[in-house]
Each structure stands twice: as structure tokens, then as C-alpha cells.
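Hey,
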Amino acid sequence: MPRWKALPEELDPQVREFATQLRRLVDKSGLSIAAVADRTGYSKTSWERYLNGRLLAPKGAIVALAEVTGTNPLHLTTMWELSERAWSRSEMRHDMTMEAIRISQARDALGEFGGDVGPGRSGGSRPGGRTATPPGAAAGGAGGYAGANRPPTGAPQGPPPGFPPSAPSGPPGLPVPPGQGGGRGKRRTTIFVAALAVAALVLAGAFLLTDLGGGGDKKPVAQTPSAKPTTSAPELPAGVKCAGDDCTGEDPELMGCGGEFAETATTATVGTAVVEVRYSETCGVAWARITQAAPGDTIEIAADQGEGKPQTGTVNADKDAYTPMVAVATAAEAKACATLTTGVEGCTTATQ
């Protein structure tokens, strides 16, 4: 049975080559994946994802692997940078494809509910807004509006019979100056001048209200205190995807809080297993890790204050496991406990 699984077919060629190189380094070192995990500080599950092309390894993991295998980290990180760009392009193409699918689905849904009704598409109307002439409309009728004399629906209505076609239009009851003839350009100019006059009046009124009296001994008007500027969240390092409460319940490796951003705060031995509290000051979180354990053993992490739900993990055939993260202000707030299948239980002691 081959050691490695086939890489996904949809994997970018640059990422595929990088994953293949990582596999060669591991094979050349003679280390198992579990041994690589122990020596680099990244879990076995994470390395399986990295080496099988399901997740791009963070830069910290690549540097750690170079140290473990005696490889020049400069060459390996150069390949990682190229793969990281290719991975980002693949994610962008995937996002654009999903967005196009959502837009297409939205358009189809709007079409089912009549969302495409518009000029030229309303029920019973022809393109251009002209309504089809009803049967019999060609015949003459009383008043001179039936048949061919009826103006098409939606078209500008002409003057009634008996009125000159150039009759000036304007507000009812107001005389229209000679020569205007209802011209739109002059009306627009008049409206523009009126708007300017109103704006000038508003500015003059504001000036009078703010400087009324002008006396030098006048008490200053109390001003409403301005709101204090909000402090934006600190910028996270590249690859770190969460901080604090946003990390609670998340995988520390997937969120980028492990590796170079984490350290072992406390350690305890429970039976034959080793229990650790892993702490990331960058993310403001902690999680528990158990190694040298047996399948079925469980590990739990919780904050001493009792806030939030404890996070748990179960050991599988890899003989190690780690929990999701909990938000803590310091490593001293976190406590890890293990329960072995033999019935032995134990916890770490918080450091001060």
C-alpha cells in the first residue's frame, strides 16, 4: 500500500509541485508524520492536510520542517511563497465562480416573480411603450378621438381639438410671457436661479443665527461633546485569522494560531500521557494537547473563571489529540484535564 494518497486533481500545478517536494523531504528524512508533528510543533492531523494538498502549510510550519530535515529554509520558503500566491488565485477564482452562480440564481428567481418587467415588457404592451391598437379602433367615433385620431397610449398627449398646437404651457392661473411657448430650457434656467436664491437665503439665515448680537461679552454657546474615537482592532499577522472570542471553538491550526505563534504554558503527566496547555498571545487563546495517549482518551481545556463552554478532544489511532481554542487573557487562566480509558484523571496546574 503506497504511503501517500493521490493529490487532488483540481490542485494548482504550483501547489501540487510544492506538496510533492514536501513529501520527498519527509521520505528522505525517514521520519513518520507523527515524528514530524512532534518535532515541528504542528499536529499530525495538520501535516496530513499539508502533505495531501488539502491545506497550504503556514510559513512557520515550512521553516520548522526545513530545520528538522536539514534543508535550506531559503529555497523552501521561496517555493512556499510561489505556492501561496497560486493558492490565493485559486481561492479567488472559486469565490468569483460562486458569486456568478449566486447572481444567476437571483436573476432566475426574480424572473419567476416578474422581476424582469420593464419598458417594453409590461403585460399587453409593445416595445417602446406603445400599446397595441384594440380591434375596431380604426373606425371613427364621436369627439374626434376614436379610431385613427386616438393618440397611442404612453405617447405625449397633443392639444385637444380647437386649441393651437403651440399653446404655451405653465402653472394654471399664471400668465405666460410672450415668446416662451413652454420652452423647457428657459424653465430649467428659472428653476436653477430659484434654487440658488433659496440656497443663499439658507446660508444667510445660518450666519445670522450663529453670529446674532455680535457682542464681545456674549457667553459662548455650549457645544455637544464629540464622541471619542473608537479604537480599531489590532492588526493580526499574516496567516492569523482570528483573535479572542472569535477564536473560541475553532481549530488553532486552521486559524493560524499554532506554530510560531504558540508555546507550551504548562505540562502535566497523567498516567502515561503528557498533557499540555498551548497558549497563543497573538490570538489571545489557549488549547489543550495530549500525546503518548491511547485511543479513546479525552482531553479538555477550560478557563479558570468558568466563562464559556469547555472544549474537548478525543485521541484516535494517532495517540495524540488537541482541543479547539478558548479565549483567555493570560496562559494562567487556562487549565487542561485528561481522562484516560484506564480511569486515571489529571489536570495541569495554572502558573502565576
